[in-house]
Amino acid sequence: MDVNELFWQAPIDNLKKGYIDDETHFTCLLCGEEIEKGIIYPYDGLLYEAEKMMQHHITITHQSVFHYLNGLNKKMTGLTEHQSHILGLFYEGKSDQEIKKELEIGSATTIRHHRFALKEKERQAKTLLVMMELLKEQDRKEDTFVSIHKTATMVDDRYNVTLSEEQQVLAKLFPHGVGKELVRFPKREKQKIIVLRAITMLFDKEKQYTEKELNEIIKPMYEDYVHIRRYLIEYGFLDRQSDGSAYWVKK
């Protein structure tokens, strides 16, 4: 399963830990890294059993689950850049006076106001979460929405896509299957995102590609591969070195 789907479908307790486990592996919900159970892993002169190694992976790769989540696009968190900054300072355990000094704010009352506003967001989020869970229980026939990739540069109605819609669009535009010829690159934003997401699934998430390697994957699908490559970057599916020497799937 795609790491974005794993992330959005995971229970809150697993999201807080940053990973899920099955019979054979621990899987990082933040990047998809898998660590096999039953193996002792050496790292920096120490030995780690699998779950400890996954916890260590999250620390060395993502700093913490909190830092990873707080760094997501504001459309994902619902926080302004200023709120994210203050939330990070709260997480570090800094007092209102210390934050006031660091942000050069005239009064600690302003900091207390931010604390109150964030608490209010927490209450609203809990209420909405319960309501959505009850809605799911009430309507078992609802069509599942396609998970939004966490690195999306803009999140709006273009991402309002159900699984059945996605399948219909891909069947129409890739009549011989994704990876084969793309009939046309759609102008409609929603369909454009569906196509770009499907193409991204063809790439190895652990590999860095040269521009030539990337072109060789895209060109059999669509003659104007530069057009596709540019959109993959623009919509946050891929990232690259500034000189274009390496491309990779954003996580």
TrEMBL record:
Residues 182-249 form the DUF2087 domain. It comes from the Bacteria. InterPro entries: DUF2087. It holds the Pfam family DUF2087. This is Transcriptional regulator. The lineage of its organism: Bacteria, Bacillati, Bacillota, Bacilli, Bacillales.
